[in-house]
Every structure is written in structure tokens, then in C-alpha cells.
Amino acid sequence: MSIDVTDQGKVNLLDFDRQGLRDFFAQLGEKPYRAEQVMKWIYHHLESDFGNMTDVGKALRAKLEEACYIGPPNTLLDKAAIDGTHKWLLGMDGGNAVETVYIPEPTRGTLCVSSQVGCGLNCSFCSTATQGFNRNLSTAEIIGQVWVAARHLGNVPHQQRRITNVVMMGMGEPLLNFDNVVAAMSLMRDDLGFGLASKRVTLSTAGLVPMIDKLSAVSDVSLAVSLHAANDELRTELVPLNKRYPIAELAAACERYIARKPRTHITFEYTLMKGVNDQPEHARQLIKFMRRLPGHNKVNLIPFNPFPGTRFERSGPDAIHDFQTQLLSANVLTMLRRTRGDDIDAACGQLKGQVLDRTRRQAEFRKRLEDGVNHAA
Ligand code: SAH
């Protein structure tokens, strides 16, 4: 876990999961229950000022002020769409910014959280790719997105929650920022954190095979895999990572994941692009892929969301309908994701944020990927 330390040498408490916070309090010579008391203030009461933590003694409050702070990201922009979707542009250290989106539905409220500033995977149909990659977000910057959104939305504990689900489907590839994402997801699920059930926290990956195995060993969050095509030639065009981890290897990793967690299922995301991957033959390939997998998995169809400069178009309503019908007739559980918040560019693949100094880092990132650092990570 990377710990954010300010110029004054203070530690950001949002960087710690529960164990990390207990260890930090131990270093301060404080009992673990004190850490838990403070954790409740941070995540249940969304308090960032030690001075307001009324059941924490004065001496300890003073000690905390000296040693640490509670530092959520800055809200640079707060936009609401006509359909109730909300988008925040959040400022991160170093002049970077990421976007976080809230999507209210009648029975739930989903927060879409970013894991990196930009993204290095270069998927050809995603606008985040056009920005390149800058850096991983810290644990504080990831959980801080939930904290800020909860505070804006008035997430009151023990009442009806506004945020019922979190999906790691914002900017970035979460499995390339493994430790910080796992720590942040642990805070999302911790009773003293945001208290969400594991199945209500979803990590979405473009298919980093070794990291899928690593994830299943340490966490039982829900898994979503961005497939977009079930033949290697087309998938490599859409998701270049497929060259390194082709479909057969990805399918094998999915099988291992399901075998390890018998009651879970995987959601496969499939963005529908006109004339590219929306034809009956593509549906047939997808059906074949889904049938090979054990368990009851699900396909999530996402109509492509356009952005300036893209060569792709959204599939027409008939093509989308026919594609879904073909899958359903083959007994593949298939949902169609309604496009939300597109009047504020908050839909999937439209998130941009602000990415500085990307060229050098992009080159570094590519090199790391080629060197296979991710195998070892
Ligand atoms: N890197 C992760 C998570 C980020 S993207 C992943 O690849 O899963 C979240 C989802 O939005 C992915 O399924 C992604 O493929 C999809 N997406 C990206 N650009 C899109 C676009 N322009 N229209 C619709 N969906 C898009």
C-alpha cells in the first residue's frame, strides 16, 4: 500500500484499511479500539475534522492532529444529469483529476469509481485510452471518491443508503493497481467502513489473467470481465491486452475463478458497436464462449457511447435487440445496460478527467507490461 505523506510528514488516514489503521494507532501508542472509533467517524459520519470526534479524548485528538489528517480528493466539478446521474471531477495530487459517477435507480444507487489516472491498456473504443496513462491512484484517492460522493449525496448511516453498490468501472484498469484497489474495496465492505456486501462491490477488468487468480485468492468481490468479442482477432483489435492474454487463457482463468468460488458468477461486459461486433456470427461466438464456462454467468450488453474523434458508432436498436434475443434464446442470461448520464458525458467509456505528463509514463507502463512485471506483482 502506498501511503500518502504530506510535506508536513502527516499521514492520510484514508490510506489505511482497518488493520492498517490499527497498526498506525499502535505506533502512536494507542489501543486498537481507538482506531475503530476514529474509523467510524470517518466512514459512518463522514467526518474529516478530528475536533468534531466528540467521543475521542482531547489528548488523543491533539496527537492525531500532529501525526495525520483525513484527506479526501478536492471536488473540482459537480454535475447532475437530467436522469439523476451525478458526476464529480475530483482533483488528485500532482494536478491530475479523475471522474466518479453516481447512477441512481429505483432499487439501488451505483457509484462508478476510478482506479488510475488515465489508462495504459489502449482499448480502441474507450475515451480514457485517448488520454494515456499517468499513475495509479492511492488507496486514499480510491476510497476518497466514495467518501466524497457519499458526503455530497448525504449518505446517512442506518437510513436508506444512497450508495448501495460500487463498481470499479471508472477510469483505469483496477487489477494493475492491485494493492490499493484491494485495500479500498476492503474499506467499502468493512462494517466500520461503508459496510457494503461483497457482491455489491464489483471489480471490472479487461482480462489480466494472472491478476484474476490473485484476486480470487484474497477477495470475494464480484468480478466483471470486459470481453467485447469472443474471437481473438477482433478482440485483439478492440482490447490490445488480448494479444498477451488471449481468449482461451482468459476463459481458463474465469473457470478457475468460478471453481474457487462456487456460488459466484462472472459478468461479461460486451460493448455493442455498429457493424463491428454486433452481427449474428458474433452472438454465436459469444454463446459458444459462455457455454464452455461452468456456472450461471451473465452478459451485460452496453450500447457503445460515442466520444469526439472515435471511429466507432453505437449499434442500432434493431441490432441490439436481435443480439440480445439471440443470446436469450440460447439461454444465456443477458442484460442490456441502459445508457445513463450521457448528457453530461458520464456514460461508460466517456470518462476523461485530466491527465498530466502522460507520454513518459505511458512509455514506462508499456515497458513494464512487456517485461511481465504484472506476472510478478
Ligand atoms: N479497465 C476496466 C474498467 C474500466 S471500463 C475494464 O476494462 O473492464 C468499464 C467498462 O466500460 C468496460 O467494460 C469498458 O470496456 C466499457 N467501455 C469503455 N469504453 C466504452 C464506450 N465508449 N462505450 C461503452 N462502453 C465502454
Question: What are the salient characteristics of this protein?
Answer:
single chain, 377 residues, alpha/beta, DNA polymerase, domain 1, TIM Barrel, 10-stranded mixed β-sheet, two-stranded parallel ribbon, 12 helices, 14 strands, disordered C terminus, binds S-adenosyl-L-homocysteine
Strands, helices and their partners?
Elements: E1 11-12, H1 18-27, H2 32-43, H3 58-67, E2 68-69, E3 74-80, E4 86-91, E5 97-104, E6 109-112, E7 116-118, E8 133-136, H4 139-153, E9 165-168, H5 178-189, E10 201-205, H6 209-218, E11 222-226, H7 232-238, H8 247-260, E12 266-272, H9 280-292, E13 298-303, H10 317-329, E14 333-336, H11 358-371, H12 373-376
Parallel strand pairs: 1-2, 6-9, 9-10, 10-11, 11-12, 12-13, 13-14
Antiparallel strand pairs: 3-4, 4-5, 5-6, 7-8
Helix pairs in contact: 1-2, 4-5, 6-8, 9-10
The chain binds S-adenosyl-L-homocysteine (SAH).
The site of S-adenosyl-L-homocysteine has 16 residues, from strand 10 and strand 12.
Could you describe the 3D structure shown?
- The protein is globular and about 70 Å long.
- The chain folds into two domains: 59 residues, DNA polymerase, domain 1 (Orthogonal Bundle), CATH 1.10.150; 294 residues, Aldolase class I (TIM Barrel).
- Strand 4 and strand 5 form a beta hairpin.
- The chain has 377 residues and is α/β, with parallel strands linked by helices.
- Strands 3-4-5-6-9-10-11-12-13-14 form a ten-stranded mixed beta sheet, covered by helices on one side. A two-stranded parallel ribbon has the order 1-2. The protein has a two-stranded antiparallel ribbon with strand order 7-8.
- The chain has twelve helices and 14 strands.
- The site of S-adenosyl-L-homocysteine (SAH) has 16 residues, from strand 10 and strand 12.
